[in-house]
Known about the structure:
- Helix 9 runs parallel beside helix 12 (279-288), helix 9 (205-227) packs across helix 14 (325-335) and helix 10 (232-252) packs antiparallel against helix 11.
- By secondary structure, the chain is of the alpha/beta class.
- The protein folds into 2 domains: 6-203, Rossmann fold; 211-379, N-(1-d-carboxylethyl)-l-norvaline Dehydrogenase, domain 2 (Orthogonal Bundle), CATH 1.10.1040.10.
- The model is unreliable at 360-368 (pLDDT under 50).
- The N and C termini lie far apart (54 Å).
- It has helices spanning 28-39, 51-60, 82-86, 101-111, 133-140, 155-159, 174-178, 184-191, 205-227, 232-252, 263-272, 279-288, 305-319, 325-335, 340-348, 369-379, and strands spanning 5-6, 9-10, 20-24, 43-47, 77-79, 91-94, 118-120, 146-150, 164-169, 197-202.
- Strands 5-4-3-6-7-8-9-10 form an 8-stranded mixed sheet, sandwiched between helices. It has a two-stranded antiparallel ribbon with strand order 1-2.
- Residues 123, 152-154, 216, 219, 268, 271-272, 278-280, 305 line the site of SN-glycerol-3-phosphate.
- Residues 25-30, 48-49, 66, 95-98, 100, 103-104, 121-124, 153-155, 303, 305 line the site of nicotinamide-adenine-dinucleotide.
- Substrate binds at residues 123, 279-280.
Amino acid sequence: MKIQSVNGEPLPHDAKPFARMAVIGAGSWGTALAATAARSGAQVRLWGRSGDVVDAINRDHRNPAYISDVDLPESLLAVREMRDALRDADAAMIVVPSQSVRLVSRQVAAHAPAGIPIALCAKGIEGETGLLMTQVAEEELPGHPVGVVSGPTFARETALNHPTAAVAAFPFAYRDRLHPEDSAAARFAVTLTTESFRAYVSDDPIGVEVGGAVKNVIAIACGMMTGAGFAENTRAALITRGVDEMKALAEALGGRRETVTGLSGVGDLTLTCSSPTSRNMSLGQQLGQGTPRSDCFDGAPVVVEGEKNAKSVTDLARRLNVPIPICDTVRAILHDGTPIGDAFAALWARPIESEPRAMALSLTHPADDTAVQTLAERMS
Ligand SMILES: NC(=O)c1ccc[n+]([C@@H]2O[C@H](COP(=O)([O-])OP(=O)(O)OC[C@H]3O[C@@H](n4cnc5c(N)ncnc54)[C@H](O)[C@@H]3O)[C@@H](O)[C@H]2O)c1
Ligand SMILES: O=P(O)(O)OC[C@H](O)CO
């Protein structure tokens, strides 16, 4: 597979796909990514912690626990032991929820061949430390190049071969700039390329990761407003101002603002805020309709990354002194007990600000209490 250019530089050679790929985590997204790499021609070993699921994947070529109606490639081998997934692997993808990434990275470190590149595929920020997923993995996987694969990718659609695009991002060392076709980003991109899956490359994992972590929180906000009966104006406002929050946080962490305008930022935010297929949007919608948290998803233990990340993202932003008011609103509702109507009324009543925020304009124009009350009442 030919990669045309990286950072605008035409490539002299084709990038070489990884022959053997370990996928760690057999949930929805791990299964979909494993299927994609297998369809692309890689020898894929998928590790799952449930032996029954592993056996069923090998027997039925379907995952009975997640995206269970999707046929998986027969070449995809699931394994019960992590060491079997990683033996002789050329590269690995870690695909477990963000708050389990440290533990699983530590386990991967015990078995991974020295120096293989590892892509993090979870979307979030570690609660206790405020670290991005790649920073957590760097601590636990010394000596391994660490990057990220992210984008607007519902697992089921990806596994069903709907045309899908994502980005593989690794830091580019000097050597990668001379030979970008050998970079981990380019090699992950070609290893995931199929007729329906299109991967781009980036050298800004921080910018990519911030998009993935923040979009889930904004999607909960969109869901809450939709659930409360508001519609397209509100959603467009939250998406657009959500992009601004992503850009500011990415920049404060050393990422690039323009990365946020790509698949992992604007792309994923648009997807996740557009459909109740998103678990984050769906949680927000249910809460906005007044469903108690314990009854959401009919009480099933569904992974909703934006829930814990509403706290980790806002904790981090506060430490960096970066205002992210939409994320703060979601945090106030989910973690501080503020009623939804009051929290969104306060969000809409903030003093007028400049757009873009770099202008640092601040006009004092607090909405009067009557207006605040009206919006809060309409949402209650
Ligand atoms: N589902 C999607 O459409 C999608 C798409 C892109 C990215 N993601 C991201 O991928 C990550 C995983 O999401 P998912 O949708 O696959 O979740 P999921 O709930 O479908 O699956 C999670 C998997 O992780 C495993 N797991 C959890 N904790 C573990 C631990 N401590 N040790 C070992 N295994 C553990 C579970 O057994 C399960 O197999 C999330 O960060 C999510 O945001 C999901
Ligand atoms: O279902 P969600 O909300 O976790 O979103 C899944 C993916 O992150 C979409 O890219």
